[in-house]
Amino acid sequence: MKDIGKFATLASLTALVPTSCKTAAQIVNEEEKPLNIIYIMCDDHSYQTVSAYDNRFLQTPNIDRIGAEGVRFTNSFVANSLSGPSRACLLTGKHSHKNGFTNNEHGIFDGSQQTVQQLLRDAGYTTAMVGKWHLVSEPTGFDYWNILTGQGNYYNPTFIDNGEKKVVPGYCTNITTDIALEWLENGRDKTKPFCLFLHHKAPHRTWMPDLCDLDLYNDVEYPLPDTFYDDYESREAARLQELSIIKDMNLVYDLKMADAENEIHTPENPGLEAAGRGMYTPSAEGELRTGRMTPEQFDKWNAHYGPIIEKFKKDSLSGNALYEWKYQQYMHDYCRVIHSVDRNVGRVYDYLKEHGLLENTIIIYTSDQGFYMGEHGYFDKRYMYEESFRTPLLVRMPDCFKTKMRGVDIDGFVQNIDHAATFLEVAGAPVPSDIQGESYLRLLKGNDRNWRKSLYYHYYEYPAEHCVRRHYGVRTEGWSLMHFYNDIDEWELFDLKNDPSQLHNVYGKPGYEKITGKLMKELERLQDKYDDPIKSLNGTRP
Ligand code: SGN
Ligand code: CA
């Protein structure tokens, strides 16, 4: 991962952290200022498009500021790279097989189980959930919740406000932020510390920008990833998927080429095309309809996409020129959507500053998983390959940490199961022994002694959309080993130092016996530690 000059390494700063710095928990226990928590999570925001991590695509100054005034985790990962599962890991602090929500398609989150929001509430916090929820059952353990239906919609979304459905006019990222700020201002019990989960729908597919951002980056040409034309040689499991920009990204649905003349067709996926045509059509005059634009909104939309559609038809591209056009079109919209997220993160920051809350609030910025920006030719996520296994994580700590951890990199391996334990420690509450994640508060204080050296991953959603096979695996500093199972039986091993793009599967190749044996043992140890029942299934281990 690219290093940014202004970020010092943790090692060089550890020595500067004075032992007298009170922990968040001590602050609470001494009945001084308790710390608030704002956890901002996007949906599908790649670290590649956070400029604190990668400068190639766009600038995200407001998001970056959280890390510049706090820390940037350079090894932040998820346990199961998919929305619902990731949210369940966050709220329970447990891997998917323990919290029961293994995949989006068949999961219903059991809200009667132990959750971090309920434990925080028991510890005297007031808790709120705003934005994308995606766990099917109604939220539990929050004093306030106002969530999007399902995946949510970019335009005129429906929110469920503590049980009551409302179509809210406007653009989703702005509305989600408005609701969160309104709760901070007027909704919460100000006698208590708060924990606010602010979950954006953006930048989930189909990457629909805010109207005011439609013409942003028009002249930018994004660099094509080196692995865009990956041939998946030696990686059968990487070949078997339906998340390729070249073959699966839909011209109408994903790339908005819904021409009024109905001449652009995508025979390989007429269902998605129809969905796109439905979405990119105005509502009737005076109608406010979820997922569709009003006529006024559509006019602005069409002023941008209309000429692009016209040119697209005229150019009749094919082959690589078409594939690269698709990539550019995808990246333009994705980056525009991120720009609006960044602006709204700035609004939250400004609110906290104006209300003196920066001094006693921890701010976390992250995503429910990583995302492909054309690497391996992909969009979407799911794989244990780096781009979707990793997720951005920036944390700004208030006063007591202020001068010591500004612009610092932390390279300890953290995973989304770690937030629950961290928040509880911040609250000064005990961490129940069945929580599998670990509090990274001590990393935030500069202590990384005996921190974990390996990570466990398990993805389940197959057969399903995008056709990524089920797999589990282990990752250490230098190696990633994964096993794809169910209707295939493929192992992949990558030497991350020499092959960071993961193009060469060296599993079973001469010379790798020793490291393979070591990683197999570690995988087994982690499956035992986390008590994953997959370990006792026949044929899943050689
Ligand atoms: C939707 C998308 C998929 C995406 C899943 C899961 N299709 O089904 O492309 O992988 O969500 O995403 S769409 O046609 O509805 O856009 S997740 O982030 O919510 O897990
Ligand atoms: Ca997601």
What molecules are bound to this protein?
Answer: 2-deoxy-6-O-sulfo-2-(sulfoamino)-alpha-D-glucopyranose, calcium ion
Multimeric organization: single chain
DSSP summary, beta strand count: 17
Strand coverage percent: 5-15%
Mean pLDDT: 93
Largest sheet: 11 strands, mixed
Helix content: 25-40%
Our measurement of the CA-to-CA distance between the termini, rounded to an integer number of angstroms, reads: 33 Å
> Radius of gyration in whole Å, from Cα?
23 Å
| Unreliable spans | 1-21, 538-542
The shape is globular
Structural class by SSE content: alpha/beta
Strands in their spatial order, largest beta sheet: 1-12-3-11-10-2-9-5-6-7-8
Total count of helical runs of at least 4 residues: 15
Report on this model:
The longest helix has 36 residues, at 319-354. This protein starts with 7 loop residues before the first strand and ends in a 13-residue tail after the last helix. Strand 7 (158-161) and strand 8 form a beta hairpin. The protein is built from 15 helices and 17 strands. It has 542 residues and is an alpha/beta fold. The model is unreliable at 1-21 and 538-542 (pLDDT under 50). It has helices at residues 10-14, 24-29, 61-68, 83-92, 96-99, 116-122, 172-187, 236-239, 270-279, 295-315, 319-354, 386-389, 418-427, 441-444, 513-529; strands at residues 8-9, 36-42, 71-73, 76-77, 126-131, 144-148, 158-161, 164-167, 194-199, 361-367, 393-396, 408-410, 414-415, 455-459, 470-475, 479-485, 490-495. Helix 7 runs parallel beside helix 11. An eleven-stranded mixed beta sheet has the order 1-12-3-11-10-2-9-5-6-7-8, sandwiched between helices. Bound molecules: 2-deoxy-6-O-sulfo-2-(sulfoamino)-alpha-D-glucopyranose and calcium ion. The site of calcium ion (CA) has 6 residues, from loops.
